[in-house]
Design goal:
The chain is α+β, with helices and mostly antiparallel strands. The protein has a single domain, classed as 2-Layer Sandwich (Alpha-D-Glucose-1,6-Bisphosphate, Chain A, domain 4), CATH 3.30.530. 24% of the residues lie in helices and 35% in strands. The protein contains 5 helices and 12 strands. The strands form 2 sheets. Strands 1, 2, 5, 6, 7, 8, 9, 10, 11 and 12 form a 10-stranded mixed beta sheet that branches. A two-stranded antiparallel sheet has the order 3-4. It starts with 16 loop residues before the first helix and ends in a 7-residue tail after the last helix. Bound molecules: N-((E,2S,3R)-1,3-dihydroxyoctadec-4-EN-2-yl)hexanamide. N-((E,2S,3R)-1,3-dihydroxyoctadec-4-EN-2-yl)hexanamide (6CM) binds next to strand 7, strand 8, strand 11 and helix 5.
Length: 247
Amino acid sequence: VEVTRDEVELPPPSIDNRLTVHSLWPEIDRISTEQLQAAFEGVGGQIGWQLFAEEGDMRMYRREVEVDGMVMDPLKAMHKVRGVSAREMCHYFFNPQYRYEWETTLETMNIVEAISSDAIVFHQTFKRIWPASQRDALFWSHVRAAPQHTYVVTNHSTTNDEYPSNTGACIRLFVTVCLACRTQWPAGETPSRDNISTSIAYCSTVNPGGWAPAGVLRAVYKREYPKFLKRFTNYVVEQCRGKPLVM
Ligand code: 6CM
């Protein structure tokens, strides 16, 4: 499938036909639906969520989970950004052309398969964290619209025969990430840059795929996730400045 630059300009308001006929579609649809449902659920009711970063409207929580000594801590962040829409947020998160500008843990990014205007399979390598081996990931990424002025991007690990895991210097990690955004504005008003605010829920669970020292990994997450969310949201605000609002 050839996806032209125009088509990836903004997340489409409805699902691309080329995605619904793809073999990954049932999985992409199921996981995206589950992730969106969980994204806006609070952390208040559940046991074990600890607040580890707070700055302005941003709050980040994690749950300490280890499986066979490997850190799999689920992370959940809430944020609120004024003046940009959910659709704009998801556009910049999904679209590969901007990724190097806001993603600082990234070393390389390749498009493995451009499925449709709203789904891409990526192979990425990350900067090495001493003393662990370098990591890579292979995942599909899907952006979709949902009711209540919501847009959501889901990233989830997959496999591909041409990208086998653990053959070179990298250990393959497994990831499930969801960025869910919902835009609101005062009742009776017309949405504009001056009156909209977008609530963001970002959830991430990374399985490091092989040995990595728990303390180092938790320290990296504690530093890198707040840095990512602040940098990404500021980036989108900057990109949208002076441009017409797209809802
Ligand atoms: O969600 C984020 N980025 C997306 C686009 O690239 C995508 C990325 C998922 C991979 C997340 C991996 C995080 C691990 C980074 C640390 C380096 C790996 C070493 C681990 C082993 C020792 O969903 C933003 C991700 C922000 C991460 C801080």
